[in-house]
Amino acid sequence: MTKKNQHVTPRPDGWAVKGEGNSRATSVHPTQKEAREVARQAAINNGSELFVHGRNGQIRERNSYGPDPYPPKG
Predict the structure, then answer these.
(1) Residue boundaries of the structural domains of the chain
(2) Is residue 6 classed exposed, middle or buried when 0-12, 13-18 and 19+ CB atoms within 10 A define those classes?
């Protein structure tokens, strides 16, 4: 299974959930909250990261659901 990061991005018709590198959205939702929950579940299942973008396209939230090393290296 590939660890595709999940992105929640704005669209004219709502909010899209899109796997990193995909050209098409996985799903489209009327609210950011609904899209975030779907993307969060996909990120948990994939052990990847979730990026939530604001209306301006900038990343406003980032969460990691993968195996983070503890203690951190460096």
Answers:
(1) 6-64
(2) buried
At 69, which amino acid appears?
Answer: P
pLDDT for the residue numbered 67: 75
| pLDDT per residue as tens digits for the range 17-51 | 999 999 999 999 999 999 999 999 999 999 999 99
Q: How far apart are CA 56 and CA 37, in angstroms?
A: 20
Using the structure block, give the residue that is written with the tokens 């980032």: 62
pLDDT of the residue at 47? 93
Neighbour-count burial for 15-52, b at 16+ CB within 10 Å, e otherwise: bbbbbeeeeebbeebeebebbbebbbebbeebebbbbb
